[in-house]
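We were asked to recover a plausible sequence for a given structure. The inputs and outputs are reproduced exactly as logged, with field labels preserved.

PROBLEM: sequence recovery
POSITIONS: 419
GIVEN STRUCTURE:
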């Protein structure tokens, strides 16, 4: 007969570390946009996400927030000759825990623990890892929570309008039922309408059953709540990491937060992501974490064109483009497919073609709101032209306040009248 022996689970030092807090501290590393890579000058190279790089990032996060377990810290101080071994064991357990809980996928597992009790040299480990959808969802949730906390808000519903519809939440007086309305009957008003009609027809007996006619049906009215289709247009040209500041990583965080907000609070809305550089590309939100800035120019016209095509397939009450950029349009896709580039000043050809695309968006009923991460005079004038044509708004902000401005704009967006 086979027996199963159970023993008490003693756990590891890694179990005492809050995984949510650790992932929050690793957000900048996990969503890095190539800002650190610009010093090397190799933008075409896809810098590998190896377990060694993850290990270094975890060490920096643990030291920055003093998250090392007290017992482990004490052992490292009492036995300095074993400090590296103890730390390596902790890091290996943390990475294994991240994989087990579904935050990362590892191409090949970490090296097994040797019988001698010594860990392998992590510098030799070249296994790559990828963020999972669970990790991206968590990072979006944390970013959204931080942004809403700074705004002093707790929860939000759907987009309210001044229109009335026949829904479940009762607002205002009842109305006569019309074909297509939700059959949320106001029983009292319906019976009253039937009684008034019978009295007008000369009936003297009101004994049940009452004769209900189609015109007697009265339904509750509720506030009409509209839906919105949004394209988030992100500039990933070279200027987004120039001048000693990373502007693209905060934009990626805001995109994740906005995606989480729409999925959880506005299920009727849609969000699509378009990157524009020398050209433009539609990107699934799940790929956002791996996107990096490259040696690109800024083809704003092509980004707007692709966003307009995507929104033309949506049947929402509102359609809008949220454009995040820090540079002037400096590229243009010609009719023969060639890309015309001019990074010196505002090229008249590039600007005129870009403004014509803005006008096409306006004629298609698409609103354009621009979040500018720069305050150059010529750029301010260009953005004001975009706003005048598209009847949108311009926000001149910084990477630190971008999320607050963008979420406030989205949450305060009231629907136009829907006929």
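RECOVERED SEQUENCE:
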């Amino acid at each position: 007969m086979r027996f199963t022996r159970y023993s008490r689970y003693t756990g590891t030092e890694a179990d005492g570390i809050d995984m949510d807090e650790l992932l929050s501290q690793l957000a900048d590393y996990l969503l890095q946009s190539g800002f650190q890579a610009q010093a090397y000058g190799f933008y075409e190279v896809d810098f590998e996400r190896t377990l060694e790089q993850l290990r270094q990032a975890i060490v920096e996060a643990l030291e920055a927030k003093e998250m090392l377990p007290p017992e482990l810290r004490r052992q490292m101080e009492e036995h300095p000759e074993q400090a590296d071994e103890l730390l390596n064991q902790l890091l290996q357990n943390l990475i294994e825990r991240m994989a087990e809980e579904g935050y990362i996928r590892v191409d090949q597992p970490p090296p097994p623990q040797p019988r001698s009790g010594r860990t392998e040299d992590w510098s030799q480990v070249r296994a790559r890892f990828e963020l999972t959808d669970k990790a991206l969802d968590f990072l979006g949730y944390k970013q959204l929570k931080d942004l809403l906390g700074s705004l002093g808000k707790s929860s939000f519903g759907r987009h309210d309008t001044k229109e009335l519809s026949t829904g479940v939440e009762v607002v205002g007086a009842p109305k006569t039922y019309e074909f297509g309305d939700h059959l949320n009957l106001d029983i009292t008003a319906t019976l009253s309408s039937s009684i008034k009609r019978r009295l007008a027809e000369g009936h003297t007996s009101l004994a049940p059953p009452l004769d209900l006619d189609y015109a007697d049906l009265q339904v509750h009215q509720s506030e009409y709540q509209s839906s919105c289709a949004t394209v988030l247009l992100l500039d990933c040209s070279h200027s987004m990491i120039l001048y000693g500041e990373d502007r693209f990583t905060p934009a990626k965080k805001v995109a994740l937060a906005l995606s989480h907000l729409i999925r959880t609070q506005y299920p009727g809305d849609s969000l699509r992501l378009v990157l524009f550089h020398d050209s433009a590309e539609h990107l699934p939100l799940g790929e956002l974490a791996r996107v990096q800035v490259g040696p690109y120019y800024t083809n704003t016209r092509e980004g707007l064109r692709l966003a307009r095509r995507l929104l033309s397939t949506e049947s929402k009450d509102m359609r809008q483009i949220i454009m995040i950029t820090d540079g002037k349009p400096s590229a243009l896709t010609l009719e023969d497919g060639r890309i015309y580039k001019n990074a010196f000043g505002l090229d008249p050809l590039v600007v005129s073609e870009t403004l014509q695309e803005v006008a096409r968006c306006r004629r298609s009923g698409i609103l354009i709101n621009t979040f500018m991460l720069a305050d150059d005079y010529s750029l301010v004038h260009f953005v004001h032209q975009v706003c005048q044509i598209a009847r949108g708004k311009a926000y001149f902000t910084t990477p630190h306040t971008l999320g607050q401005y963008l979420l406030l704009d989205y949450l305060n967006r009231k629907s136009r009248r829907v006929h």
